[in-house]
Design goal:
- With about 300 residues, the chain is of the alpha/beta class.
- It has ten helices and 13 strands.
- The protein has helices at about 45-50, 95-105, 110-120, 135-145, 165-180, 190-195, 215-220, 230-235, 260-270, 280-285, and strands at about 5-15, 20-30, 35-40, 60-65, 80-85, 150-155, 185, 200-205, 210-215, 220-230, 240-245, 250-255, 275.
- Helix 5 (about 165-180) links the parallel strand 6 and strand 7 (about 185).
- The two termini are about 25 Å apart.
- The mean pLDDT is about 90.
């Protein structure tokens, strides 16, 4: 089994007078675990809904495995979107929703479903509308992972889960992804928790693609510089500054841009401490109101 690619070209989606996505160009590589990041209202759920053929775009196109997914009999059985709201039979037993998803997805694993049901302590005789929010989220995770769809779209599925359950989900996701490669897009606000899982990252901001990048390469573009304020200011002059914090005479500045060997040596001579910037910190800085424009090296990949 291989994953399906997801490509958007000039994608625009409107809800009345509100434009949820504006002229979006992005590509999710097949066989990757991609993080879809963005603040509330950035367009994440809309993008996933169009990819899953839940609605049509107002302009542009989305292609899944090179084809329009809308009413596509070849594509539909291999795409599965799990939303936090839950697309299940609310008044039927969990077993009915399991059967429905299994019937619609040829790669569905009953073995994995059983393992996850036990792990999350879910009784298939219960009804979704009788479950807590956390248990409903856990059941959505069971459906999403067990479907083993070639394009699996997980939209904030962790909401309502306590920390141990979230980490159990991350471990199960990564283990099954490694054993059964496919394309997984994971939308989440908990960036610090999913950072270790991601191969690629797409950041949406106000309906536009801000960043589309290999996760490791994106991390390498962030750098913290800490030391005496005057020395730090001199070192970061001319760089794209994302943020700064000062305590007394010590200043820490977060910048975009990697250093060459000569610059690294110069920092050491100046008594400056260099450090990585967590993906979540980069995200916060890049999506902040009034954030500086991105350098060409970090423009959205198409």
């Amino acid at each position: 089994m291989t994953g399906f690619s997801l490509t958007a070209r000039g994608l625009t989606v409107r809800y009345g007078s509100t434009t949820a996505l504006h002229d979006v160009d992005v590509e999710v590589r097949e066989g990757t675990l991609t993080g879809l990041l963005g603040r509330n209202g950035s367009g994440k759920t809309t993008l996933l809904s169009v990819a899953a053929a839940f609605r049509r775009p107002d302009a542009g196109q989305v292609l899944v495995d090179g084809e329009d997914p809308w009413e596509n009999e070849r594509i539909a059985p291999h795409v599965h979107l799990v939303r936090e709201s839950g697309d299940v039979l609310a008044t039927e037993r969990l077993s009915a929703s399991l059967a429905m998803v299994a019937d619609g997805h040829p790669d569905f694993s009953h073995e994995l479903a059983g393992t996850l049901l036990d792990q999350f302590e879910l009784d298939v005789r219960r009804r979704p509308d009788k479950l807590s929010r956390g248990k409903r989220s856990a059941f959505g995770i069971v459906l999403g992972l067990a479907s083993r769809a070639r394009l699996t779209l997980l939209d904030e599925v962790h909401l309502g889960l306590d920390a141990p359950s979230r980490y159990a989900f991350y471990d199960a996701l990564l283990t099954d992804y490694v054993e059964h490669p496919r394309t997984i897009v994971l939308s989440s606000h908990l960036i610090s928790e999913i950072d270790r899982l991601l191969e690629d990252v797409v950041v949406l901001d106000h309906g536009r693609v801000l960043v589309s990048e290999d996760a490791e390469r994106l991390r390498s573009h962030g750098l913290s510089v800490t030391g005496p304020a005057q020395a730090v200011e001199a070192f970061v002059a001319g760089r794209t500054v994302l943020g700064r914090q000062q305590l007394g005479g010590t200043l820490q500045v977060t910048v975009l841009g990697a250093l060459d060997d000569a610059e690294t040596r110069a920092a050491a001579v100046a008594g400056l401490e260099l450090g990585p910037v967590p993906l979540q910190d980069l995200f916060v800085h890049l999506t902040a109101d009034g954030a500086p424009a991105l350098p060409a090296t970090l423009e959205a990949r198409s």
